[in-house]
Protein: DUF4218 domain-containing protein
Organism: Linum tenue
Amino acid sequence: MVHLAMHLATEAKLAGPVQFRWMYPIERFLRKLKCYVRNKNHPEGCMAEGYIVEESIIFCSRYLHGVHNPFDKLERNGDRDSIGSGKKVSVFNQNGYPLTMDKNRSLEDLERTQAHIYILNNCEEVQPFIREYETSSKNEDFAEWFKNHASQLCTNKDVQSRAELLSLARGPLYGVDRFNGYVINGFRFHTQKHETRKAKQNSGILLKGLMGSKVVDYYGVLTEIIELQYLGGNRVVMFKCEWWDVENIDRGVKVDKYGFVSVNTSRKLVTNEPFVLASQVEQVFYAQDGSNPNWIVVLKGQSQSSFDHFSEDSVDEQSYEQEEAFQQEKSATNYPIHNLVQGNELDDWEENDEAHDDSDDNSSHSENSADEGQSSGESEDNDDFLL
């Protein structure tokens, strides 16, 4: 059967969205059921038994920890155990993993200071020390103050936490490892330079930050992936990004009436925080705005290792909408017939219908006449028989 593209628009008007009425999911499920058949004499029984066995295995495998089974395979971008697994300090415990190595380099003094201060401000275990620093004298910056007082402040910690906090207070080494790609939080990231040779886009960055007391989405591009090294074998992966100016409404960022966010690529955000933790970011994609050459539209990505959770009201409403969409005999919108058919064609159809009705009347009349003649002939034969 050949499907012509010219029929798709009319079919969509009459029947609604195609995803509610195509047969691909049903055919895939039937293929799965056919794979259960081992005895051709009893296909229905094989399907039923195979389906029950697979459901039982999946259910039991959820309670078997540490046992490999084919149903708990890692996702393509799933998190794995990294070098920092088992660490007590949160910034040292990251489950991402790198893709390909890049050339190593040494950090400049400004870059090292920016990365170190950002890590301290975003480490949960350091927050009590920050509050204590704010109540004390501020003759020196927090990084230097924390380095000088870390040994006295960490006396009530356990041995591992104390060693990791002391390593964090001394700051990272100047030499860093660099990567072209990194997988974390269910996303696969590539640097902007690395993806120039690729067809897909994986360098878009989304970071939720505070602007005053308001939570703002910061959009940018990933330019470099570095791994900071601390004493004791501790490591922290950070993303260096170029940020768009989202603090200037209408000139740097805007939202249209449909809810799409657009950012101005000609306006960069001037900030002293180019580095962010790899565990904090999400992935976005950018599409060029056809009407404005300097603007790009933001499309948020969905992590392959996470699922959206809905409330009961939203689930009920969604199921009701799906049930309405599955009524194929009823169009979602009532379209007048003159929008789908030209006027001359409609006249021709009416003439054909009238001619068809006349022919039906003539045929029914002739059939009635024939039936009457046959019945009269039968009555004459009966009379002859009686005589």
The two ends are 66 Å apart (CA to CA). Residues 314-332, 334-343, 374-387 have pLDDT under 50 and may be disordered. The longest helix spans residues 343-386. The longest strand covers residues 214-229.
